[in-house]
Amino acid sequence: MDTILPCLLFLAALVAATSALQCAPCNEATCTPPPPGCELGTRVCSCCHECRVKEQHACGPFSPECESHLVCFTNQGVFVGRPPWSSSAQGRCIKYADVPVGSTAGHMIGRSVFGRK
C-alpha cells in the first residue's frame, strides 16, 4: 500500500514529461510565403515553410533546420538538421568537413555525420 502513491506520482510525472510539447493543429495556420531561392525547412511545431539556416548562422531546437549540406555544431554535440526540441543546445550551422576532430555526435536525424569518408 505504501508503494502505490509513489508509483502513481512517478507515472503522472512520466506522462507530463512525455507530453510537454503539444503542437497546435495546422488547419488554421496562415503562412507567409518564404523568399524565393532558399532551401525550405520548418521549425518545431510550425506549419509553415521558411528558409533553412545558412552556414555560420545560429541554430537551436526551435530554429529552422540547417541547410541540408550543413550540421548544427553545439557544445552538446553535432546534429543533422537541428538539435531535438528537448535539448537546450545552441550552436552554429557548419559544413560536415569543418566539424572538429573529436567532436561527439548528438542526436542524428536521418544519417550519421561521422560516417563520412
Automatic annotation (TrEMBL):
UniProt cross-references to InterPro entries, sorted A to Z: Growth_fac_rcpt_cys_sf, IGFBP-like
IGFBP N-terminal domain location: 19-82
GO cellular component: extracellular region
UniProt KW keywords: Disulfide bond, Signal
Signal peptide: 1-20
Protein name stated in the entry: IGFBP N-terminal domain-containing protein
Species name: Littorina saxatilis
Biological classification of the source: Eukaryota, Metazoa, Spiralia, Lophotrochozoa, Mollusca
